[in-house]
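A favour, since you know our structure tokens better than I do. It will help me judge whether the discrete encoding reads sensibly. The space below this message is yours for that.
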Amino acid sequence: MKDVNAQDHRRLLLNTVIREHVERVIKICANQQQAAEALGISRTTLHRWIKRWNGSKISEEEPQP
């Protein structure tokens, strides 16, 4: 049981770091296309992540490239 809780905690921390990084990159870039390029992902993936994050808690979402 302890391993599962630790794994969930690590996943939550990683998802939080990813989301915060993406949000910072979006603020720095002129538009979402440039942000996606800076992140090394497609604009479609960026839009999908934003849509998920806007409608749910971070702990429930894992970005899928």
